[in-house]
Every structure is written in structure tokens, then in C-alpha cells.
């Protein structure tokens, strides 16, 4: 049985990239563009992994809807491993515990696919 992953990001291009990377690692992937859709999916299905963007509404600079979503999803299924993906990790690290962080685009470079895949493998290695 393949492992399942939920990707939550309001930017479709990021959602597609993350799903592609997860599929290459053998995951069955699901996508939600907002927290309401993600919460609904989480109530209907058990996920091994969730990858959640912090800012789910880019037009709102102070938006941290993804942080609230992490707390909701952890309460629904505390066994799901969670990766928070953000361009602002320093701003949110103190607000969340029990999750892993990865920067969308580290300052002065591009997104590191290998770092993401290595993190995912480490998180779920005991679940297969």
C-alpha cells in the first residue's frame, strides 16, 4: 500500500511541484489550495504526510493561516508527519512544535528538491 500525502498551498505551481516530487518518492498525493479544503480532506482520509505552506493567502502579508491549519490537522490526526514550507521560517518556528520546516526559496538560491526529498524520507522511513 502506498503512502499518502496532502499538499496545501495556494500557489498552484508550488502544489504541482511538491506533488511531483512526492509521487517520485512513491506517495499517492492529494492537493488543497486552502485551509477549508484541506481540513475537509483530512476529516475524510488519513494521511501519512502533510506539506503545508504558512501563508495561504499571498495577498495578505501577515497571513499565517497555515499555522492555524497545522494545529487543526495535528488535533485530527497526531500521527501525520507535517512539513511546513515557507519563505519566512524564522517568523514561525517559535509558533509551532512537532513539525519540520523547509524554506520555499532560501535567500539567494532556488528550492532544493533533494533537501525536501531527504526530509520526507527521514520523516516517514518508519511508516512503510
Describe this structure in words.
Helix 2 runs parallel beside helix 3. With 128 residues, the chain is α/β, with parallel strands linked by helices. A five-stranded parallel β-sheet has the order 2-1-3-4-5, sandwiched between helices. It is built from five helices and five strands. It has one domain: Rossmann fold (3-Layer(aba) Sandwich). Strand 1 (3-8), helix 1 (12-24) and strand 2 (27-32) form a beta-alpha-beta unit. Helix content is 40%, strand content 21%. It starts with a strand and ends with a helix. It has helices at residues 12-24, 35-44, 65-76, 89-92, 113-124, and strands at residues 3-8, 27-32, 49-53, 81-86, 100-103.
Amino acid at each position: 500500500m502506498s503512502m499518502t500525502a496532502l499538499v496545501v498551498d495556494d500557489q498552484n505551481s508550488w502544489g504541482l511541484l511538491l506533488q511531483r516530487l512526492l509521487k517520485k518518492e512513491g506517495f499517492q498525493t492529494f492537493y488543497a489550495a486552502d485551509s477549508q479544503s484541506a481540513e475537509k480532506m483530512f476529516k475524510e482520509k488519513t494521511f501519512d504526510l502533510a506539506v503545508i505552506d504558512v501563508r495561504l493567502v499571498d495577498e495578505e502579508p501577515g497571513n499565517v493561516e497555515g499555522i492555524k491549519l497545522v494545529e487543526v490537522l495535528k488535533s485530527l490526526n497526531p500521527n501525520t508527519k507535517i512539513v511546513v514550507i515557507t519563505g519566512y521560517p524564522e517568523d514561525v518556528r517559535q509558533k509551532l512544535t512537532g513539525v519540520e520546516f523547509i524554506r520555499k526559496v532560501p535567500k539567494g538560491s532556488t528550492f532544493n528538491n533533494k533537501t525536501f526529498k531527504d526530509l520526507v524520507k527521514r520523516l516517514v522511513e518508519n511508516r512503510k
